[in-house]
Amino acid sequence: MSFARIAVLGGGAWGTALAQTCARAGRAVMLWEHDAANAASLIEARESRFLPGVRLDARIGVTRELAEAAQAEAILLVVPAQALRSVATALAGVIAERTPLIVCAKGIERGTHRFMSEIIAEGAPAAVPAILSGPSFAADVARGMPTAVTLAAADGALAAALAEAIGSATFRPYHSTDVRGVEIGGAAKNVLAIASGIVTGRGLGASASAALTTRGFAELVRFGRAFGARPETLTGLSGLGDLVLTCSSPQSRNFSLGVALGKGLAPAEAQQQSKLAEGAFTAAALVEMARARGVEMPISTAVDAVLDGRLSVEQAIESLLTRPLRAED
Q1: Which of 55, 109, 241, 256 could form a disulfide with 114 if both were Cys (CB 3.0 to 4.6 A apart)?
Q2: What pTM did the predictor assign?
Q3: Is the backbone of residue 98 left (phi > 0), alpha (psi -120 to 50) or beta?
Q4: What are the contacts of 266-270 at 24+ separation with CB within 8 A?
Q5: Strands 60-63 and 128-133, how do they pair?
Q6: Using one digit for the tens of pLDDT, what is the confidence trace for 260-270?
Q7: Cα torsion through 119, 290, 274, 147, rounded to 10
């Protein structure tokens, strides 16, 4: 399990950044991009339109042919969560059996309530699902800034081998077998980051931001516990670590979406400005799944109601501040 040849599907900012770090790890990398204009930029200018100023490593090839990328020994899927099923299904007919598919999206599929690993199992059943998640911004990773993440697969030896294959001096993947815990942390924190952005956009102060992040983490833990996540995963890089990062920086698309909402933009207009904010798509699924398991998630529920137009930002804030006082859990 040396994984000398790795493919990265998706030439956006995060896909380009991960291709860079795989190349730094000494792997031969094939970067697949479906968008013609961005593919042309990657091939001709050796630069993604979504990550300007970062020149592709010479070891990275670029293709628009999925079958060519599918020849790799391991594949990183860096496509939006809601597009994962279509890409996995397309891969099913061209990959070798037992090829690791490492999902780098953070979300839950709307309608089906499927986690990312479940989508891989359904769309590409011959593949082996894995999850990469943690506190990381594309610009930092692409430029070689120190970053630590979690890579999970059900097989511990495979998770360790994959982490070894893509790790480098500045990109440190810790490995885990808690696939569900890693994907829950990534999905839930995006919704909570929207709430944190609303607090900042509304100018409610640092104390409110700290309270929101802390109580949001309590929601993430309750949800994770209900779906079988390990406590140490939720308090690790892919849970608490990622939550802290995305609840505190405008580099986070989800946080920026919340800031726009907090400043008074209508949900449709705010989402138009932050098209790739995964939390906007995950919120409804997260809340519906929590409700079905009897998990109390008032912050996430308020975010879903604001995004859906059922509550204004003011009403959502009031609904949280007027909740009955209770013991801290």
Answers
A1: 109
A2: 0.96
A3: left
A4: 267/306, 267/307, 267/308, 267/309
A5: unpaired
A6: 999 999 999 99
A7: -70
